[in-house]
Amino acid sequence: MAASQILLISNKRDTTADLVVLAAERHGIPIFRLNTEDLPDVRTKCSPAQTEFAFEHSRGRFVITKGTGICYRRPSPPETSETIHIGQWMADQWQDFILGIEATDDLRWISRPSSLRRAESKIYQMKLARAVGFKIPATLITNDFDAFLSFSKIHPQLICKALGGGLVGDEEQGSFIYTTSIGSDVFPNAEDLRLAPVMFQENLAPAEHYRVTVVGSSAIPVRLTFDEAVLDWRTLRDPPRVEPAELSMKLNSAAVALVQSAGLAFSSMDLMVREGDVYFLDLNPGGEWAWLERNAGVRIADEIVGYLAGAICP
Amino acid sequence: MSKPFLVKLSKRLRAAVREQTLVYDPIQQLSVLPNDPKKQPAVSRPDIPALGTKKADIEKGEDQKDIWPRAKFS
Predict the structure, then answer these.
(1) Which residue among A229, A278, A295, B48 is least crowded, i.e. fewest CB within 10 A of its CB?
(2) Would you call B10 and A175 a contact, using CB atoms and an 8 Å cutoff?
(3) Which H/E stretch holds residue A84?
(4) Helix, strand or coil, per DSSP, at residue A83
(5) Burial class (CB in 10 A: 0-12, 13-18, 19+), A172
(6) A22 and B44: CB-CB below 8 Å?
(7) How large a percentage of chain A has pLDDT more than 90?
(8) How confident is the model at residue B49 (pLDDT cuts 50, 70, 90)?
(9) Chain A residues closer than 8 Å to B33 by CB
(10) CA–CA dist A268, A314 (Å, integer)
């Protein structure tokens, strides 16, 4: 593997980031982990004239140089005992500092924060997916009840889901919006619907489920299977069974092209196959992959480190 | 009383798979179990599989997890 170095920007509790550390060590790639909640305890320096960033903490000093691989996942704001206003101001300052790393040329990112933000848009994702050749389920995003009614007459089997994140509230006390079938027991009314747009899609079930993780120019597909028919596998008590799968060359290229067209070097995506047609559901630029490593035996951490170290072409 | 349609459909999060209390080891740059004299990487231990799957995290969705969140206050 090419000699390089990796800066891992994450948080201490992210055990998936631990897998990146272990993979880097396996391949002899120096890796420096920057946990963003600890930033006030890190000595930082940026010289804009040279766009040089340096970090120093108990493990040593790290200077971002040409060719450095930056793994950016799950940043967490600095923890502070300051008031909410001062604390938020501090977090904003650190965010600007870290995001400023994007000004440095010739870095290899997984993934650029600016690209991540744009690629999270489901509408944008569907446009890109269609452009590279995926089929898209018939979709309507609306807060207009009449538009919904018209759409439901054309597509009587519908599901609904959130356009953005499905989490309502915080991760400890909150609730979550799973994909749900529209039916007599679940049917919007005009007053509720107008409050926020909803994504309605034709229900593709029954279909086969695949999750494809793309790293650089590699697509790593796994097939998901379930003991019971389920619309949203996240509602299951246990993760679905996963096994390595194969994609046709055409699909493989389309998956890679989709991620690259979103300006990303990493993303997972969910696909469904029905009667031989492959449908794109969504892109998860920050998709979890540790469970696929453990349960399907695919080697994603190695691919990530290989890409960041420059051993894999973008 | 009106309420966003999807919010009415939301379900309480299943009790998260409680990850064992871990200690971050700054030398290895990863988490280990407290009182583990060998400081074996926690994520490599077969006796705590939930760490490897992050089931609880997946259940909460994977959207916008890499966007800088709001500040936390202790």
Answers:
(1) A229
(2) yes
(3) helix A84-99
(4) coil
(5) exposed
(6) yes
(7) 73
(8) low
(9) none
(10) 16
Please identify among residues 40-69 of chain B the ones whose CB lies closer than 8 Å to any CB of chain A: 41-44, 49, 51-55, 57-69
Binned at pLDDT 50, 70 and 90, residue A171 comes out as low
Question: Do the chains contact at B61 and A238, CB–CB below 8 Å?
Answer: no
B9/A contact by beta carbon, under 8 A: yes
Q: Which residue of A has its CA nearest to B55?
A: A239
| A209 vs B contacts (CB less than 8 Å) | none
CB neighbourhood size of A196 (10 A)? 15
Whole-prediction pTM: 0.91
Radius of gyration of chain A (CA): 21
- Gap between the Cα atoms of B74 and B54, Å rounded: 25
In Å, what is the CA distance from B19 to each residue of A15, A169, A188? 10, 21, 38
Q: Among B11, B65, B72, pick the best mutation site for testing chain A contact (most A Cβ within 10 A).
A: B65
Residue B36 burial class via C-beta count within 10 angstroms: exposed 0-12, middle 13-18, buried 19 and up? middle
Write the CB contacts of A37 (distance below 8 Å, at least 6 apart in sequence): A11, A12, A76, A77, A78, A79, B72
Instruction: Return the residue of B nearest to A234 by Cα.
Output: B59
The tally of CA atoms less than 13 A away on the side-chain side of residue A119 is 30
How far apart, in whole angstroms, are the C-alpha atoms of residue A283 and residue A266? 10
Which ipTM was obtained for this model?
0.87
Amino acid in position A231: L
Look at the block and give the residue holding tokens 């040593």.
Answer: A60
Residues shown for chain A: 314
Task: State the nearest Cα–Cα gap between B18 and chain A, in angstroms.
Answer: 11
Closest Cα of chain A to B14: distance in Å?
9
